[in-house]
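CORE FACILITY INTAKE
Project code: CF-77B
Contact: R.S. (postdoc)
Sample description: multi-component assembly, two entities in total
Requested service: structural model of the whole complex
Turnaround: standard
Below are the sequence entries exactly as provided by the requester. Do not edit them.
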Amino acid sequence: MREDILFIICGMALVTFATRFASLGLFRTTGIPAWLDRWLKHIPAAILTALIVPSLLLPQGELFLSFQNHYLVAGIVSAFIAYRSRNIVATLSIGMAAMFLLRFI
Amino acid sequence: MNVKQISIPGYGKPHPVWQQAVQDSAPILLGLIPFGLTCGIMGLTVGLNPFEIIMMSVLVFAGVAQFIAITMIGSGIAFWGIVLTSLLVNLRYLLMGASLAPFTLKQSFPSQALLSFLLTDESYALTISRATKEGYSFVYHLWVSLPIYIVWILSTIAGVILGNYISDPLAWGLDFAMPATFMVLLFPLLKDRISFMVCGASALAAVLGSMFLPGKWYIIVSCLLATILGGILEGEKK
């Protein structure tokens, strides 16, 4: 195991456990403040969006708005399937099939 | 084998709360397997070795954070970027932990620590729903949480084994599995007008950020901007 990866994994393990354990002490008497609640609830959607959109629109690090961009086309297909089915197996298999077709045809 | 010798709380008691818990979590466990497989395979595509990938599932045990970390390791982001992002995506556990606190605080300290470590979106949802319907049960809480952990590790291991048979994953466009997986996680979160606006703002900020900011800082920056916008909009609503 490489040292830098070990540090990353331990760091992640620590902060993850902290978020799961800390509220038992922090908000035991006061409850969660309203402003924190309002802010926290949007974090997962914001982070997931920030990961998805650039990987489709800028697959090589530069804006690539074209039907030649396989990531974008397969991404639109997958988004449709994910939206309709909410199912990871359907989304992954159809999305990857689209990607595969675009690459080799 | 005499089951009563196994000192797992609730095991072998006349009222099989743990059986009900395992039954309730069964559909979740099935749904978890593809994510664990993907986690194992994606770990290999960014150059992690099998032991590192499995240790991440054993020690961190947080699907979304792990997927994001794997993406970031693949794009060369170092320690602080990854740890900070893990902290941000996992802040939601503060809310769940706080909502369970009235029940968990009555347990012994080791139990509190164990249940906290095992806290996931899914086990939280099951535990709190039972707590409101039939009252809180420690045994139920433990037995909806523990199988998720075990299945997560086993399916990660299976993914690593499976991934070994795919020689050059990037040539197959396998890196596309990551955004596709994230979409399945994202869409159920878009429930109202504000969440759509947060998503739009984050998309715009992320595209601009990835064009003009160094490295992958756009992930944290766009998340902060979009969630602050979301918080302000929520505040105006009331």
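Facility notes:
- Residues 3-26 of chain A form the longest helix (24 residues).
- Chain A touches chain B through 74 residues (CB under 8 Å).
Invoice: internal transfer
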